[in-house]
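Worked example 3. Consider a protein that binds magnesium ion.
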Amino acid sequence: MSVLLEVRGLRTAFHTSRGKAQAVRGVDLTVKPGEILGIVGESGSGKSVTCMSVLRLLKRAGRIEGGEVLFGGRDLLTLSEGQMSDIRGSDIGVIFQDPMSSLNPTLTVGEQVMEVILRHRGGGKAAARARTIELFEMVRIPSAATRIDAYPHEFSGGMRQRAMIAIALACEPKLLIADEPTTALDVTIQKQILSLIKELQGRLGMAVLLITHDLGVIAEAADRVMVMYGGMVMEEGPVARIFAAPRHPYTQGLMASVPDPRTAGEGRLAPIPGSPPDMMQPPAGCPFAPRCPAAMNVCDAEAPQLYAAGAAHRSRCWLMDPDAPQQGGAA
Ligand code: SF4
Ligand code: MG
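Given these inputs, the predicted complex is written out as structure tokens:
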């Protein structure tokens, strides 16, 4: 199989008392088996909502209004909630930013790993306990055999995230979705968790969808990167290429706003002047136009498509189109 996850034309909105926020506006993405795809963008760009849509874990006000989410050839959007919860935790593992809120404070960490194994894999308690110890060793929690009986509050933040990784990988998923997995941790621990994810990805051969607002995390861990803004994919391509030769003004702005994006944890996105679009009334044209130093008349009027910018590299910008109407006139 050449593609593990394929998202086509995903549109997700949140219905609020103020109106409808169009958080994701036509996102296409593919993840191949064994690759790490990074999604980077400022908060509100639609990157988390894209992943929550794939997992069908949107908050109640959220609704998927269009598109397909093909995982191993099946459209996840057509499955029942029961079928979907069989997939979450077995074929697709998930880790979030804050491991404390994902762990149950009243159960030992080991019980929570065992619960996942028993739910998806069956077998007896003794086997699940043995497997839990193995998993703790795999994520390098020291003294695994005794630490599995500790409660979440007895773990440090980094150890809790290791435990979350153990839960996510308990059933050897084909895909791990990691939403800001290192954001809540301090820089040293961030690097350890990131290299653990990368090492386990190599060892288990799973694919990873890695969401972050940190270019350093992308530089260190991802094979390919998708840059999101205003609910759309602005640029995508191999990481080395995007860092060496970003073509989209937004990506170029992100790169310029950090001193050295190749340093994980120190490559957090500094704000580009201006503010992101109001998704209640998303602009008809390029969502980045009000902040873009290169904006032209056409940019406000019409949204550009994703143009080829080289091998596996695409940029959603009118600058890529030699025939762009009204080129040159600054808006
Ligand atoms: Fe800037 Fe226009 Fe390109 Fe948007 S389409 S990024 S406004 S030049
Ligand atoms: Mg988020």
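Take a moment to read the result before moving on. Residues 249, 286, 288-289, 292, 294-296, 299, 304, 317-319 surround iron/sulfur cluster (ligand 1) (CB under 6 Å). Residues 35 and 139 are 20 Å apart (CA to CA).
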